[in-house]
Structures are given as structure tokens and as C-alpha cells.
Amino acid sequence: MGRSRIVIVGAGFAGYQAARTLARTARKHADVVLLNPTDYFLYLPLLPQVAAGILEPRRVTVSLTGTLPHTRLVLGEAGGVDLDARRVHYTDPEGRAGELGYDALILSVGSVSRLLPIPGVAEHARGFRGLPEALFLRDHIVQQMELAAYTEDEQERRARSTFVVVGAGYTGTEVAAHGKLLADAMVRRTRREGGQCVDPRWMLLDVAPRVLPELDERLSRTADRVLRARGVDVRTELSVKEATSDGVVLQNGESVPTRSLIWCVGVRPDPLVSEVGLPTERGRLVVDPCLNVPDHPEVFACGDAAAVPDVTQPGQFTAMTAQHAWRQGKTVARNVAAHLGLAEARPYEHHDRGFAVDLGGIQGAANPFHLPISGPLAGVVTRGYHLWSMPANRVRVAADWLLEALQRRQAVQVGVVRAGAVPLDTASPELVRASSH
Ligand SMILES: Cc1cc2nc3c(=O)[nH]c(=O)nc-3n(C[C@H](O)[C@H](O)[C@H](O)COP(=O)(O)OP(=O)(O)OC[C@H]3O[C@@H](n4cnc5c(N)ncnc54)[C@H](O)[C@@H]3O)c2cc1C
């Protein structure tokens, strides 16, 4: 028998871990090919720290070729899968079409920003999903605060110093928490230089009755308290009704002049999921507890892209979190090996071990093993957890944290990502309708 070929589409938490595990367990019998648009795995949970200028962008990237021996990386974006011919069609970074045949396929393409059908949002809001968005936001905050300091127009100064974050899940909460600290640091700099400034206003909105609505209520209370003490204007059960180039109108009719609308309302599965023509559940690919797509024994899916039954809570699906995606990567690797006759298949089972939210400075909110903690202890636990979880760059990340503690933040506009390069994902009308329900 010849060697089998396992193709993994998407090198995020799930795909990276699947490749890593397969390269160890199945490399004698199979070639592992990883298809991904970038040559790195992005450690998303630390992205708010990139936007805040604490971490250099490369710190949150993990080289795929440098850390995944025995895996062939193909740079490209899958556009479709021919399930009968067992081939993945993709486009490489130079726009050339290519295809990859497979004996086993893992779809781990993750998710993209979720758009809601609110007038002006697609044009004027920025998402927060990848490195370009984080770099754009970092520059944008610095730029707005600098423009606010130079203008003679008091109204313009207020608008430029106002930042509206929509969505108080962990992404929006962390972005607002860190963003406020960066803007405050810029105000201190302006005052030292004798410039004009107003206290920056950060608003965090959510239609839910509390921040971090998907997490333990005790974490919500901690985050709410820290954010308010920092001066973030937290508004629950409220969202944006309309966005324009110079402000937003809230659902209660209030107008907020701003040049900054940051969209963190959640995610939906990557568009490839709807392209492959397999059954979906709430937009995610239907899989069995062994992460296998029904009627296609050679096709597997995991992470945000898959509706994985949560065997610890019958009737539920696992949440779209890194914690699940990472562990599902391991399980899918084992079950693909089982499909090739190299192991025994096992269902995915993971009991939630709590969550950690970094609130910037020395603050955090965490509940490791469901023990709620707050303040500096939670900050230390959160950062310790990230260092432990990252597959590489630990020393570099720790060094940036040390520099942050010892020195003033370096706030300059690098200008490498322009607004046009980070459009908020424009979903198809059907998907927009589906996700808004
Ligand atoms: C800012 C932010 C902060 C977060 N913080 C936390 C946190 O603190 N804790 C937590 O548990 N979760 C957190 N999450 C959620 C967590 O990151 C996701 O649940 C997790 O990344 C899902 O892993 P995944 O492997 O399914 O997808 P991803 O990690 O998103 O990876 C998907 C990969 O597939 C690639 N891809 C997409 N489409 C294609 C295609 N067509 N062809 C080829 N490749 C493709 C992408 O480029 C990417 O590399 C955060 C998310 C964000 C955006």
C-alpha cells in the first residue's frame, strides 16, 4: 500500500494541533499537508495586546514551517472541495489555482466576523479578527488621539477621542479594556508636551444584560467593575442603530460623534463551510462526536467551523473557543489516524476548565477550574495561562510584558495597514439574515 495523504485546511488552533499530532503519530504512513493562507498560526487571544501596542505583532504568530516538522505547508486559500473526486481546490497567494488530492480531509477553517444588517456598519465599522485589524486599530487609536491633540475644534477633538466598541464578549471587553489604557497613555503624553486634550471616552455596548454574557456571571461582575473604574462607559441592552462617517446613533436615539466604531459582535463560520455543500447546524458543519462528517468517513471537521456535539452537555454544541478547538485538533488527529487503520477512534469530550480574560494593566478576571479570581492575581493567572498555551515565542512575549512594565508605551503610527485593507467582512445577504436571528 502507498502512503496516504491527509490534507488539513486551516492552520488555526484546531488545524495546527491536528498537524502537530499527526506529524508525530502518523508520519510513517501518511503525508500531512497543511493548506493555509499565511505561513503562521495566529495566537488570537493575545491580539488585543497587539492593538494596544504591548506586544509586537510577530509575537502572536507561530511559524508553521519552523514548528511543524514532517508537515508540508501549502500557502493558499481553499475555495471549494470536490467530495466525490476527493480534491481541494485552492488559490495561492499569487492568484494561481491549485488542487490537492486527499485520502483524509480535515476542515478547520475557523470563523470570520459576524455582520448584522445595520445601516452604515459594513462601511464604517472595523472588525477585529486578524493581525491586519489589530495593527490598523493600534495605528488608528494613536492617529485619532494625535489628531485630537492638534485640532482647534473642540467638537472634533471630542469625536476623535471617542471610541465605540460593539459587542462585550471576551474580544470586545479586552479591546475596550486595553484601548482605554492606550488612549489614557496618549493623553498623558499630550499633557506632558503641553498639548490640548480631553479625557478619552470608550464606550462598550452589548444587547445582552451584562458584559461577557457567555461566561460565568462572576467574571462579568469583575470585568464590569474594572472597566467602569477605568472610565469605560459600559452600556448593556443597547446597540448601534446606524453608523455614519462621523458618528453612530444608538438604539435609544442618542447620537455619539466618533471616528471609531470597532465591531466585535461575534463570529460566524468561515464562508468555505457553506461552499462545501455539506449539512450545517447554525452555519457550522455537522459532525458526529468523533468529529466525522456523516456519510463521508474520510472527511472530518473541528474548531469554530464544526458543530461538535458536547457530550458533557447533551443537546448542546461545543462553544467557539480556543480551548475546544485546540483539544479537538488532537482528537481529530487521532480519529484520522484511526480512519487510516493506525489507531482507535475516540469521541471528543472536554469538561470546561474555566476562562481567563485579560483586562490590561495588572487586572484580569478568571475562573480556573471554576474558582473565580480577580485583580492582580487574575492578571498573573491569565498571562501565565497564555504563556503556557502558546506553542512558541514565550520568551519574546514575556520580554514585551517586562518592557511594558518598565517603560512608557511606544505610541507611533507605523502606517502599514490602511483602512481599505481591513474591510469588515461583507457576508452574503442570506448569511447576514441567518446570523442576525
Ligand atoms: C480577538 C480574539 C480573541 C479571542 N480570545 C479568546 C480567548 O481568550 N480564549 C478562547 O478560548 N478563545 C478566544 N478566541 C476565540 C478563538 O480564537 C477561536 O475559537 C479559535 O481560534 C478557533 O480555532 P479554529 O482552529 O477553529 O479557527 P482559527 O484559529 O480561526 O483558524 C482558522 C484558520 O483557517 C484559515 N482559513 C480560513 N479560511 C480558509 C480557507 N478557505 N482556506 C485555507 N485556510 C483557511 C485561517 O486563515 C486560520 O489560519 C478569540 C478570538 C478572537 C478573534
Q: How is this structure best described in words?
A:
With 437 residues, this protein is of the alpha/beta class. Helix content is 34%, strand content 23%. It has helices at residues 13-25, 47-51, 64-67, 121-124, 131-150, 154-160, 170-192, 217-230, 272-275, 322-339, 375-389, 394-406, 429-436, and strands at 4-9, 30-36, 40-42, 61-63, 71-75, 77-82, 87-91, 97-101, 104-107, 111-113, 125-127, 162-166, 201-206, 233-236, 240-244, 247-250, 255-257, 261-263, 267-269, 280-281, 284-286, 299-301, 306-307, 356-358, 364-366, 373-374. Strands 5-2-1-9-22 form a 5-stranded parallel beta sheet, covered by helices on one side. Strands 11-18-12-13-14 form a 5-stranded parallel beta sheet. Helix 7 (170-192) links the parallel strand 12 (162-166) and strand 13. The longest helix is centred in the middle third of the chain and has 23 residues, at 170-192. 45% of the residues are buried. The site of flavin-adenine dinucleotide has 33 residues, from helix 1, strand 2, strand 6, helix 7 and helix 10.
Rounded radius of gyration (Å): 22 Å
Structural class label: alpha/beta
Taken from the alpha-carbon principal axes, the silhouette is globular
Question: If you average the pLDDT, what whole number results?
Answer: 92
Secondary structure: helix percent: 25-40%
Ligand types:
flavin-adenine dinucleotide
* Helix run count: 13
Major beta-sheet overview:
5 strands, parallel
Cross-sheet strand order for the largest sheet: 5-2-1-9-22
| Unreliable parts | 426-437
The termini sit apart by 50 Å
Beta percentage is: 15-25%
DSSP E strands, number: 26
